[in-house]
Amino acid sequence: MEKKHLIGTIFTLGSLPVAEMISGAGFDWVMIDMEHSVLSLEDVQRALPVFGNKILRIVRVPCNDETWIKRVLDTGCDGIMVPMVKTRQDAEKMVLASKYPPAGQRSVGLTRAHGYGASFSEYLAGANSDLIIMAQIEHAEGVQNIDSILNVRGIDAIFIGPYDLSASMGLPGQVQHPEVIMAIRNVKNKCADAAMPYGIFASGPEPLRQEIDDGCRYILCGVDSSLMSSSLRDLSDRLHKMIQ
Ligand code: 3PY
Ligand code: MG
Questions:
Q1: Helix, strand, coil tally for the chain in percent (to 5)
Q2: Among residues of the chain, what percentage have pLDDT more than 70?
Q3: From ligand 1's centre to the CA of 136, what distance in Å?
């Protein structure tokens, strides 16, 4: 039976053992973040086989750009997340860059995604339907234009970014502010009406209880670097207390 909720976390460190740890920890998906990290395309391509194919590997591209989208898809990831989709035009642009003709304008290469040639025809035949194309709604303008964005064919999921959304509303970091919560609720309701799967990020698990109850499909929690940093600080604090 297909899972209703997919749990994931964010990979930014580029370390192959960290990729192995994330996929071994039982997550359903990972967001490999090229927007807020120093990850190179080579880092991403090296990490993909280490994650393996039991975990859905979605790469967040640095921006809504045709060149980035084609190069990232050519690494052989399972899909992309495009930040800051604010208008119908933004949504159309990302879909055109993500789909091979006739649905779009993705250029045809011969890369890791195509098994370096061995699975060229199969990849071309399946890419438009199999790859997961996520649009991030994380700006007040995107919330305002959600109806027209949802009308663009070829988007597989909406991903809500509470941090950028709160910043665009003049409330940076205040992701629990009632106005931010109301804007998020609006997007969630529209997604539900359009039968569009959606996802959301939280830095820790607590607020995600509600999201699970509300039907969120792509649950995203934590960032590898901050998980490691907070465990290290916690360990150090506890040891310091013992020697006082
Ligand atoms: C945000 O909250 O802005 C995000 O992009 C989370 O991934
Ligand atoms: Mg963001």
A1: 50, 15, 35
A2: 100
A3: 8
